[in-house]
Amino acid sequence: MKTDTKTKAGTGIGFVLIMIWCLLPVVWIISLSFKSTAETGAGSPQFLPKDATLDNYKTLLGVGTLSDGTEPDPAVSDDFIQALINSFGIALIATLLSVVFATLAAYAIARLEFKGKRLVLSLALAIAMFPVVSLVGPLFDMWRTFQLFNTWPGLIIPYMTFTLPLAIWTLSAFFREIPWEMEQAAQVDGATSWQAFRKVIVPLAAPGVFTAAILTFFFAWNEFVLAISLTSTTDSRTVPAQMSFFVGPDPFNPPYGQLATASVVVTVPIIIIVLLFQRKIVAGLTSGAVKG
Amino acid sequence: MTATAPAPTKTRRAPVTSDRSSAENRLGLRLVAPAVIVMLLVTAWPMIQALYLSLFQYRLTSPDDKEFVGLGNYVTVLGDGLFWKDTVNTVIIMVVTVAVELVIGFAFAMVMHRVIFARGVVRTSILIPYGIITVVSAFAWQFTFSLTNGWVNSWFAWLPWIAEDTNWFGDHWPAMFAIMVSEIWKTTPFMSLLLLAGLSQVSEDMIEAAKVDGATWWQRLWKVILPNMRAAIMVAVLFRALDAFRIFDNIFVMTRGAQDTESSSFLTYRQVIEQFQLGLGSALSVLLFLTVLLLAFLIVKLFRVDLAQARGEG
């Protein structure tokens, strides 16, 4: 009995620690995003803002009037909004294409017998571990030759490459759980392998595909090395890249509040996705990942 | 052309083939082909390109002076103290972060395994650091440790080695510490979820049996739970170690390599993108690739993990 109370207390403390661990830095950037430039410029080591202000949000999104009565600088908001559009566009297109290709491949791996199956899986695994930076040099050179430098496809193509392994592994694990007999039944009824795939397996596989899409989207949304190396202007720079180059007028005094605001804005989609699809993400990360 | 298959093939429209297995083989190859092509297009081909460029003295600012130097670039790199210093940095970051994450991640996994109330709340919260952009994590922690705007100094001033004016980014070890905190914060959730999956596959009966036999909590942990999670732990370590070895985002945002906090990835990036040393940078790329390959090989051999088997992929 005594150990049980101890275990319960331990779990309770652990629960509180996990919540602090996960949420404190998030609360911190939210708090920082409400601090004015004047406050952070003078140095503001306290956790919460002295006078909370929406100025940073107004400046980045280019809406309303600042608290000193001036209009927000359109140059800042234009760059940020363009970066958001780039991030969304690139991540969504890369996710869509990657998931389509991965679905085809994972179906073949989970359901069909063919030569080179293990080779494909090993290749995917090798690419998942590939040091992305070692591609930066040659890709920089190649992309300039093919006119892909500083364009959306220039980022979408490598993002597909690096999200395919994760998508293929996750999906092939999901596909193995799908009842085999359904496909065979369809084939007995006269469907070809392709028809059985399209009409029977796809609807059953949709939840798995969706999970793979979320994980893929997270990767593309987060990617940084290629985003700073293969772009040069706001035409195709994604938010992480844009943020890392955003120093403001005084290099020794970065605009803490604005960077925190940008951080909050790009974290909002992540939080929404996590809140809506928590179960799917955990399943995707673990179901196929560890079966010992 | 004639059907020789034991069972009569039932094809209504266009006869697919007389031999089911060869049709399956072809369909399989056709379905994986697009994925394989995209994967190779951006990795194998540029890597061959890097191998070729690494044999030249080649600066993008003066492309006409491209000159064949053989293994000269490799000699330059391997003879340079900076390369070794950065490699040591990277290895330190990798070993420390993975070790800390393994311990904290396991503790988190134990808690998540036990928590009955608010299970969804914990899992949702733990996915936030996982999903957050690394650059955002780096900024959040940079501001946390900031001399003028951070809360670490004021909250922890009671510790003997922290004062109100401790400049975390003014010295090598404090800066490395801040970088590692950001890395650990962001990636521990991933580790803990993988470990949780492993933990939930340890048979409760076995733990109960050990308890009945009088095993203490500590003994149950080391003799029953951990050995049965071996595959999960190894997969988590392998993935995280190789990921940590490629550390770049945190360093780029937090220090830009100042105070000797540069990693191997950062050095390669700097040579190629900032200095346009494509020849030398390619040699670094090849070396980085080989190091990761060696590392993966070592971890797999050392712990004898068969990844395909670990993931139930016969």
From TrEMBL, chain A:
One of its GO terms (biological process) is transmembrane transport. Its main location: membrane. It is a multi-pass membrane protein. It comes from the Bacteria. It is found in: Cell membrane. The chain crosses the membrane at residues 12-34, 80-107, 119-140, 152-175, 200-221, 256-277. The keyword Membrane applies. Belongs to the binding-protein-dependent transport system permease family. This is Carbohydrate ABC transporter permease.
TrEMBL record, chain B:
Residues 1-21 are annotated as: Disordered. GO terms for cellular component: plasma membrane. One of its GO terms (biological process) is transmembrane transport. The keyword Transport applies. It is a multi-pass membrane protein. It comes from the Bacteria. Residues 87-299 form the ABC transmembrane type-1 domain. It is found in: Cell membrane. This is Sugar ABC transporter permease.
